[in-house]
């Protein structure tokens, strides 16, 4: 499914190096009794040449090496079923501490089945400590859910994902068809920043909008209108929107 990138990002992509692309995964397990977890496949160099965990839109991404594939939509309309493989041991056999944390999460959350997985790709310069930090400069957000964990051994944990809009084998009615978004939005904290613990909406950007979809200056004023317009204001008019409503409801009447 084509996505139009942020204008600044589009200009950068015309001459970027492949190594500059940063792939990030956000796992929202709040629906299955967990929290929200952030993973990156590798550290990034800071200004002093040290290797540090990536930080994007205020979130620090725990480094657990992984490979991800199969995210592209086919021209035949078949929904993608990506595979994500986490490496849980170093080449010398020592368990990586962050990977051990991932294993503990799997044990406590039924292998993460049903958790939401958000894939974000951006450039190194747009990270929070980059030369041009910009939480809105990314190549769209891919939204999936964990469907299976077919492989788990002393070296690899593999997840198979399905698209969030995949409704195969779903019996209707599953939920009410309403013309507003039913996803829980982030909550502004009194001292600044946001609480994402119970949020389902994947928006983590730095731009703020009120319930009339007008830009506002502070996070305290940031209230989602629950409308399609509010979703477009945050993610972009031509982006793949993680909208949890049914925009077509009520558009037609029978005579």
Brief overview, please?
With 255 residues, this protein is mainly beta.
Number of helices in the DSSP assignment:
3
* End-to-end gap: 36 Å
Spatial order of the strands forming the largest sheet: 7-2-1-10-11-12-9-8
Q: Say how many strands there are.
A: 16
Descriptive overview:
The protein has 255 residues and is mainly β. The chain folds into two domains: 7-163, no CATH class; 187-235, no CATH class. 11% of the residues lie in helices and 27% in strands. The protein contains three helices and 16 strands. It has helices spanning 7-13, 97-108, 228-235, and strands spanning 21-28, 36-40, 44-45, 51-52, 55-56, 59-60, 62-63, 66-69, 83-87, 116-123, 141-152, 156-163, 187-188, 194-195, 208-209, 215-216. An eight-stranded mixed β-sheet has the order 7-2-1-10-11-12-9-8, with no helix packed on it. A hairpin with a 5-residue loop joins strand 15 (208-209) and strand 16 (215-216). It starts with 6 loop residues before the first helix and ends in a 20-residue tail after the last helix.
What tags apply to this protein structure?
disordered C terminus, 2 domains, 3 helices
Please outline the helices and strands:
Blueprint: H1 7-13, E1 21-28, E2 36-40, E3 44-45, E4 51-52, E5 55-56, E6 59-60, E7 62-63, E8 66-69, E9 83-87, H2 97-108, E10 116-123, E11 141-152, E12 156-163, E13 187-188, E14 194-195, E15 208-209, E16 215-216, H3 228-235
